[in-house]
Amino acid sequence: HFNRLNRALHGKISDLEASRLRLLGLHEAERRQASEALVSSDQRYRAILNFAVDGILIGSHEGVITEANMRMCELFGLERGALIGKHISEMPFMSESVHEKPFRFDLVQRGEMVVTERVIRRRDGSEIVVEMHTKMMPDGSYQSIYHDITERKRVDESLAETRRLLEETQQIAQLGGWKYDVATGKISWTDEVYRI
Questions:
Q1: For 121-175, how does the pLDDT look when each residue is reduced to its tens digit (9 = 90+)?
Q2: Mind giving me the DSSP string for 123-178?
Q3: DSSP letter, residue 174
Q4: pTM score > 0.70 for this model?
């Protein structure tokens, strides 16, 4: 009777051990599948981040940079390693642009999106103008998108200079201009026409 009970007990132990090994195998397969999915998701995230046409910075609640895409590195003229772990105030912004428009962490912390223009001076001495859009993410980190507006600023300045020259020329020659919008019936005059 003892031998039969012993065999039955060993049979149950063997069955339990086999079940345990099957469960461990299933658990390992699920863990491996979850790990592969995580790696794939991280690769997609990095591809989206790095192929963005604008610079992207991710920072901690305290303003320390935790992530930067390739375009951001190009805009700053710095390697990624020179950005990660640094405070945003340590980046190569022209001091005048930071003085005129200081960092507004208070607004970001209140959930507002802060839009600011800044001038970046790169190591090679070149300067670019960027428009920054910064907001707080649901996890409390900051996301900042940097768009290079250097060419737009150059065109705006050129247009303003051309407009200034036209107004000066009209004043000297005592000439003015006007236009009539047929669709709306609206007439627009230059300042010199008013003076004449």
A1: 998 999 999 999 999 999 999 999 999 999 999 998 999 998 888 888 888 888 8
A2: TTS-EEEEEEEEEE-TTS-EEEEEEE-HHHHHHHHHHHHHHHHHHHHHHHHT---E
A3: T
A4: no
